[in-house]
Amino acid sequence: MLRPHSSWLTGGIVAVALCWDSVACPQSYEPDRVLVKFDAEATASCRDSSIMLITGTVMDSVPSIGVYVVQLPDTSVWASIAVLTNRPCIEYAQPNYTDGAVLFDAPNDSLFYRQWHLSNTGPPYGGTPGADIGALAGWAYVHASPDVLVAIMDTGIDITRPDLASDIFTNTAELTGTTSEDLDGNGYPHDIHGWDFYNNDYIAEDVYPHGTAVASLYGAEGNNELVISGVTWSSRILPIKIIHNLGLVPRATLAKAFAYAVDMGARIINCSWVTTRDTVLAEAIRHVRDHGALLVGGAGNDGYDNALYPTQYWPANAAYSDPSLDNVMAVAFTDAVDSVNVSYSCYAPGSFVRRSNYGATAVHIAAPGCDICADYPAGPSCGHTGTSLAAPVVSGAPPLLWQQNPPWTYSQIKNS
Questions:
Q1: Mean pLDDT confidence for 379-400
Q2: Chain-wide mean pLDDT for the chain?
Q3: Which of 112, 156, 233, 341 is 20 to 30 A removed from 259 (C-alpha atoms)?
Q4: What is residue 214's three-state secondary structure?
């Protein structure tokens, strides 16, 4: 049975942080320059032709290490690096990285003080100071991911919420058509802002409402004096509706939803729900893997070791059940004192106990998921618990890494 987790953030084997080392805190770089080092045996002809290929101009050099600073006209930094890397006389090429700021002021969102998962300063709303994802430190390096599309496969999204409206994906190919026209020929007429696979139409509205909260934790616009802050700002969110009032789409339709996500260009798919394993679902996840996309899934809220239930808690449990599905990340939730929420009980709305699933071999990462504030169609609400909320917090980190490192594979993102 496919069921949404009704609460928020994780605990597991490793606590997620936006900024924990030099890989996770990539520096910014000059947008019109690359650094190039030629091979020691490079001929003048190869050096000159390499620079001409990217229509570059040598502006400066660092003689001590043999590096040249090349000015670019209109070519992008990463496109130029891709060209140079394939040249036989190039030892390496890289962006001209710049130092990021070491401090980032807290955003001015009205409920940021309640978002302990981003910045935990202790009681009354946090627990252990610093038991958070290190958002302020990470944002000093990068806080926006406008070039990375993330699919929220859930109950739909209220795309009119002020904190989300500017971040919702727009399929420009469909803007001029009628509701019955399929101008981009992808089989989904008028899919300007995603698709509702439950009702088979272009309005992926959030009735339940679960998907809006998930989307807000992932990518609510920050520092705009509104409600909350997401992990990544200026994001691109693709709404895909697969659940309605706890009902679920059939497996074939679910597989189409996964295919739609990657066909539209999603590099991350957030799945804050669980179901049971079957062949079609495994093949759908494999299709996502083959398109180079990462799938982030909530591990479940029953307090179990997922390794004991390999056919349950999919898609999060897919990588444990089938190691070839290594594009999947299973997320547990932690509380405000940074413990996996097994012995300590968090409460979901209605005051019932919710405990995170866990597993040293089956769960990959943990993120805050107890007493979380999120945005809903009816407005912001706090006190929610579960891996549904931890998953989008984890999903918010890969786009920031991909924004700074576009050529990286999902494996590099997952293992960084």
A1: 92
A2: 85
A3: 233
A4: helix
Cβ pair 209, 243 in contact under 8 A? no
Please give the structure tokens belonging to residue 134: 């290190």
Counting every residue written for the chain, the total comes to 416
Strand partners, 176: none
What's the per-residue H, E or C state across 338-390?
A: CCECCCCCEEECCCEEEECCECCCCCCEEEECCCEEEEECCEEEEEECCHHHH
Residue 295: partners with Cβ closer than 8 Å, 6 or more residues away? 268, 269, 271, 285, 288, 289, 315, 318, 327, 328, 329
CB 333 within 8 A of CB 389: yes
Q: Which of 316, 380, 369 is nearest to 8 (CA)?
A: 369
pLDDT per residue over 223-244, tens digit each? 888 899 999 998 999 999 999 8
Q: Is the peptide bond before 209 cis (omega within 30 degrees of 0)?
A: yes
Classify each residue of 175-187 as buried b or exposed e, where b means 16 or more C-beta atoms within 10 Å of its C-beta. eeeeeeeebbeee
Q: For the whole model, what pTM was predicted?
A: 0.76
- For 201, phi then psi, to 5°, come to -145, 180
Phi, psi of 328 (to 5 degrees): -100, 135
The predicted-structure confidence for 268-318, as pLDDT tens digits, reads as follows 999 999 988 888 899 999 999 999 999 999 999 888 999 999 999 999 999
b or e along 261-291 (b: 16 or more beta carbons within 10 Å of the residue's beta carbon)?
A: bbebebbbbbbbbbbebeeebbebbbbbbeb
3 state SS of 223: coil
Strand stretches in 125-177, DSSP E: 149-154
Q: Distance between CA 256 and CA 51 in Å, rounded?
A: 45
Paired tokens of 271: 């799945």
